Amino acid sequence: MPLSYMMTRLKSKGLVAIDWSDYFLRIVVLRKKNQGYELIAADSAELEHGMIENGQIVDFAEVAESLLGLLKRNKIKHKQAAFVINGANVISKRLRFDEGLTEAQIHDEIVIDFNKHVSYPPEETFYDFEVQKKEENTNSSKQEVLFIAAHKDQIGQYEQLAKICRLHLEIIDIDNYVLQRFVEIFYPEEKQDCWALICLNFKRFKLHILDENQIYLSEQKTISAGLSEAEYLNALNAWLMRNMQMFEVSNRGKKPQKIVLYGDRVEIDNIIASFKDMMQLDVMVLDPFAHLGNPQAAANITHKASYLLTIALATRPEVN
């Protein structure tokens, strides 16, 4: 059951990116123009508590109604949908094969040794792969392949929501690679730096550390939704310090050069000052609309930092 909506097989020019947290549903439509992107639409809807729990849709009818309302309000006619999946729910491995193998032969090799890569059978798995570009000055006779897989239970909610809303599910992207692409597209001169991207939502923290545009650390923590701002910051600081120390120890003292905050709950008072005191580094709340070709189109959008994944998802490259 190859997962054709993963990797780089987008064929449609019109795409609506759809993303959610436990309390908010977001959509973004971008248009490729020259060397950048222009904003066509971006909007969000607040969700009733319990409609989504830990990223999983509980009430499909209500979430679908909210999504259809966003599409109607923004006059979006696109039927091709893109979703983003938590990297914790995906198996990702780099495999090596003889350089002369075609993609069809690589697929056959993966299937033959499937149980070496995934603990559940192929018929219960969505999977895909992508041959990676070979680095310059490499004499290896092997080609590197990025292999990803997810159990069908992790994919079902996207298929069901798309079906209810009469959308064509074209892409499911992985948050790790979505963030990589965002940095590569919008910060090309700084993509070799070490970035710590921290997502702050009401019920979850997420941390991705990218170094030279490679993922070195991906961690998350679920928290109580009822924490006060002070309790939230205390829990966040303790968790973040532990993960930063772990990264530093395992990478010979390397520290992130950039601390970037995004998500639904970045607007807590004194959050930047708290991070600066703890990390002794510059910290910024990211505005993902700032590098679009028409940032003025986002002037009336609130909670801009919560749209990072949605905007990055909407930059999915097309296949000619």
UniProtKB/TrEMBL annotation:
InterPro entries: FtsA/MreB, PilM. Pfam families: PilM_2 (PF11104). Gene3D superfamilies: 3.30.420.40. Signal peptide: none annotated. It comes from the Bacteria. This is Pilus assembly protein PilM. It comes from Cysteiniphilum litorale. The lineage of its organism: Bacteria, Pseudomonadati, Pseudomonadota, Gammaproteobacteria, Thiotrichales.
